[in-house]
Amino acid sequence: MDEFMDGLWDDVGSMDSMIDGLVDDVIDSVIEGMVDDLYNYDPGYRRTVMVVDDEETSRAMLGNILDQEYDVIYAQDGRDALYQIGLHKERLSLILLDLMMPDLDGFGVLNALRANEDFRRIPVIVLTAEKEAEVRSLQQGAVDFLAKPFDLPEIILARVRRSIELAEDTNIIKATENDSLTGLYTREFFFEYGHRFDYRHPAMQTDAIVLNFNRFHMINELYGRNFGDQILFRIADGIRDVLMEKEGLACRYDADTYYLYIEHCEDYQALMDRINAGMSDLLQVPEVRLRMGVFSDNFRSDTFEGRFDKALQACNSLRRKRISSFAVYTNDMHEHELFWAKLLEDFELAIEDKQFKVLYQPKYDITGEKPVISSAEALISWVHPEFGRVSPGEFIPLFEENGLIQRLDHYVWSEAAAQVRQWKDAYGVTVPVSVNVSRVDVYDPHIVEFFTEVVEKNELDPQEYRLEVTESAYTDNSQQIIEVVERLRAKGFKVEMDDFGSGYSSLNMLTLMPLDALKLDMIFVRNLTADSKEMRMVKLVIEIADFLGVPVIAEGVENEEQYHLLKDAGCQIVQGYYFSRPILPDELGRLAAKEQGIEIKTDEINIEDLELKDIEALFI
Ligand code: C2E
Ligand code: MG
Ligand code: MG
Questions:
Q1: For residue 128, which of 53, 66, 78, 77 has the smallest C-alpha distance?
Q2: Which residues sit with Cβ closer than 5 angstroms to ligand 2, an ion?
Q3: Which residue minimizes the CA distance to atom 16 of ligand 1?
Q4: Which ligand is the nearest neighbour of the Cα of 363?
Q5: What share of the chain is helix, strand, coil (3-state, %, to 5)?
Q6: Is the pLDDT of residue 23 over 50?
Q7: What is the pLDDT of residue 28?
Q8: Residues near 7 by beta carbon (within 8 Å), at least 6 away in sequence
Q9: What dotted CATH number matches 187-330?
Q10: CA distance 74 to 360
Q11: Rounded to the nearest whole angstrom, what is the distance from the C-alpha of residue 397 to the centroid of ligand 1?
Q12: What is the pLDDT averaged over residues 399-424?
């Protein structure tokens, strides 16, 4: 049996190259007008079957019989068959396949069908005059056979009918029909029936819609799973409500994602409000919101799945939005995708060419009379040869998704450690540096070793090398991160919680979290005035930090007023454009040295190997 299977795979392998070769032939045949256009939509739901036979009389005879119940497509040999199957795969319910044909015979076609994901579901009945061939063809995936010369028309029709029914049932059984929580279709069933929906409504303009929650896990964490389930059910109810009025279908695609396929809708806000309606009284966490991506299509320009990919892209474009919103797919999303694709493509070269530059933004201790540099944050910047300076806000989330972030962060972490050493050696100053740790890095089992090695290699004290972990990474996977951070702190590293206030740490959570400083999210500083809500928030955070015994770092300080308000409220450390932008390492070294009254001899300065235009690009 194994040998048999191996042989089969060999056949399949050689089929691939053969199919490639077919493309040219196909183009020829189209040019010569050899492909008959038998493709007419029928408004009723007539299934489509294909007859593949090199003998014209056989084709005609079967066609006559099948014509009563089915739309029939014909192919005159194996190559023609594969071409036409490719064209019509979505509406083909069955193939009647002659085994004996010149060039590519029925077995070859069977092999090619089984090797292809999209074709595999189409049942095949083989037509043969040889008894032995029946067994072999059944082994190769045919569902039934018809002996030549052909039986009575009734028998042929009955066998075709039964095979189609069986195949459809199997496809549906494979896809357990309904999602047990929401009662909507499961995704497999949805795709199966989506194709059929298209076939039945060939001229309908449709919308592919993807609905997804921001941070749904928060609901489960804050209110428990039962409550989360209730929300998911309410959304499904909202979707059902829409489906009462509009033709279409929907599924729960996965945990908190729904796919909805309906006839075109004019007012997406109203659609969204309707879906949201049942939920708003339940859900009190303002940041957990539904977002919706839409791809509207008049002409079925893309495959069913392809249209949902685009809707998903539109939905993803809202990832950073904190309010409920929708987006319709546009070409600039496509352009953005292309831009991202280019960044991904250029990553390797950028690392090699050292296009990534690490800048340092000083943090100032403001507890004394005069602000003094207490440390600095390493911030990556990409000077791209084509796009100029690309902000980390653009590429960090992209690299996080694509698994490249680790390499980039390793690069920054090593550079930063070497930099602290260099400042010590060249200027005689110690400026501890903090590096950003991506939420993805936390899963790296060797992260602790990496930091330990890099610090040892540069003969630094772990106190001189700090880590910033964004608050939402803590809340996304608290167990994992608590463990990693505890191991790092055991080695003497200090860990700062970045963007504090943007995530959703509960007070209870905070007391469990190992951390050495709270970095207040910039948003609070941005709108800081004496009597503002933000001011009360800042005071509250400072109290919490006091309670935890850690300092508060305020970032994004841009003017004098903010600085004084923070200082008066008891904030110890600040960082922001008011004091300094992120700057080149040598500038920072000099700044720190000057502050400490250390004289620098010019020949000690290690001028960065940067061209002037690069430096300019960094500060645009
Ligand atoms: P972050 O860690 O919260 O960094 C602070 C961001 O605020 C930096 O933006 C900084 O340039 C900017 N900033 C500093 N002072 C001010 C100010 O006064 N006003 C305003 N409006 N902005 C200010 P940047 O460099 O664009 O970095 C954005 C984010 O990208 C960072 O946020 C961090 O999360 C991430 N990031 C930066 N470098 C790295 C890195 O090497 N690795 C990883 N994983 N993430 C990084
Ligand atoms: Mg940071
Ligand atoms: Mg931050």
A1: 53
A2: 436, 468, 498
A3: 556
A4: 1
A5: 50, 20, 30
A6: no
A7: 36
A8: none
A9: 3.30.70.270
A10: 69
A11: 12
A12: 92
- For CA atoms 478, 481, 486, 489, the dihedral sign is negative
pLDDT value at position 321?
62
The two three-digit tokens of residue 96, written as one number: 């009647």
CATH superfamily of 2-176: Response regulator (3.40.50.2300)
Measured CA to CA, the distance from residue 120 to residue 167 in angstroms comes to 11
| Interior angle at CA 164, CA 184 and CA 153, nearest 5 | 150
* Residue 614: its H or E element: helix 612-618
Q: Indicate whether residue 380 lines ligand 1 (CB < 6 A).
A: yes
Residue-range domain boundaries for the chain: 2-176, 187-330, 356-619
Please compute the mean of the pLDDT values over residues 604-608 and round it to a whole number: 47
pLDDT, averaged across the chain: 84
pLDDT of 22 > 60? The answer is no
Nearest ligand 1 atom to alpha carbon 413: 41
Closest CA to ligand 1's atom 22: 556
**276 Cβ inside 6 Å of ligand 1:** no
For residue 549, pLDDT beyond 90: yes
Distances (CA, A) of 342 to 43, 185, 347, 387: 45, 37, 9, 10
The per-residue pLDDT for 39 is 31
pTM (2 d.p.): 0.61
**Tell me, what amino acid is at 571?**
C
Alpha-carbon distance of 502 to 499, in angstroms, equals 6
Range of weakest confidence among 105-119, 275-289, 417-431, 442-456: 275-289
Domains 2-176 and 356-619 share a fold: no
Among the ranges given (96-110, 276-290, 432-446, 529-543), the one the predictor scored with the smallest mean pLDDT: 276-290
| 356-619 to CATH, choices 3.40.50.300, 3.20.20.300, 3.20.20.450, 3.90.1310.10 | 3.20.20.450
Q: What distance in Å separates the CA atoms of residue 617 and residue 612, rounded to the nearest whole number?
A: 9
Tell me what the mean pLDDT of segment 243-266 comes to.
93
Alpha helices in 497-584 (DSSP H): 507-512, 522-526, 533-548, 560-569
CA distance 231 to 237: 10
Quote the ligand 1 centre to 362 CA distance (angstroms). Answer: 12
d(CA 263, CA 206): 4
Task: Tell me if residue 271 falls in helix, strand or coil.
Answer: helix
